[in-house]
């Protein structure tokens, strides 16, 4: 079983739609969680950290469910520029504090 | 805005040849990472440096891969000999310190796309 699993998609949505991605992680001792964004053929960039209480940044909302070991990202009012791959990232305690990346979920926003 | 620099951006080589990639992290960043990203997958950590010391190279195929950061600043990743399965994007990232706390931002360079023929 992979340490971080994501639905690869692609999620094809129209502009203005609300879309949600989930991610599950296997190590219950993991303590820190993040969403990174990666545009096609570009490097990953931090989108937002995920806190236990949930956090919001503009149109983006991230939530953490420790009991079920999943993380979610909600994007409201999708823009064409949101089209990218969204990587779920977990700080792994099992291998000496390293970031473990999921394979990513592809989002395509269309006009 | 400070950035992580990598070179070359693209490299095509034949199998059994040697290749080397270079990374210059953001000034002052003590921690440097090399990742490999195969198409359709997330980045996978190959090696992590804290200053000039290797702190994690458990996923580095040491029979053919080597990495160094001699002065604790820039770093080189080498593959010798290259194999067809090494074709991937090699990403370098840096952070101010080890991501052992709640802050996990790593700043990535543009990567080197390697094609082995």
Low-confidence stretches of chain B: none
Q: Could you spell the SSE succession of chain B in H and E letters?
A: EEEEEEEEEEE
Average pLDDT taken over every residue of chain B = 92
Q: Helicity of chain B, in percent?
A: under 10%
Percent of residues in helices of chain A comes to under 10%
Order of helix and strand elements from N to C terminus of chain A:
EEEEEEEEEEE
Q: How big is the Rg of chain B?
A: 13 Å
Distance between the termini of chain B: 36 Å
Task: Indicate the overall shape of chain B.
Answer: globular
Number of strands of chain A: 11
Class computed from helices, strands and strand pairing of chain B: mainly beta
Number of strands of chain B: 11
Overall spatial form of chain A: globular
Structure explained in plain terms:
The complex is a heterodimer of chains A (111) and B (117). Chain A has 111 residues and is an all-beta fold. Chain A contains no helices and eleven strands. Chain A is globular and about 45 Å long. By secondary structure, chain B is an all-beta fold. Chain B is globular.
Give keywords:
heterodimer; A: 111 residues; mainly beta; six-stranded mixed β-sheet; five-stranded antiparallel β-sheet; B: 117 residues; four-stranded antiparallel β-sheet
Short characterization:
The complex is a heterodimer of chains A (111) and B (117). Chain A is mainly β and 111 residues long.
What secondary-structure arrangement, pairings included, does this model have?
The complex is a heterodimer of chains A (111) and B (117).
Chain A: E1 4-6, E2 11-14, E3 19-25, E4 33-38, E5 44-50, E6 55-57, E7 60-65, E8 70-75, E9 84-92, E10 98-101, E11 105-110
Parallel strand pairs in A: 2-11
Antiparallel strand pairs in A: 1-3, 3-8, 4-5, 4-9, 6-7, 7-8, 9-10, 9-11
Chain B: E1 5-7, E2 10-13, E3 19-24, E4 31-37, E5 44-50, E6 53-56, E7 65-68, E8 75-79, E9 88-95, E10 107-108, E11 112-116
Parallel strand pairs in B: 2-11
Antiparallel strand pairs in B: 1-3, 3-8, 4-5, 4-9, 5-6, 7-8, 9-10, 9-11
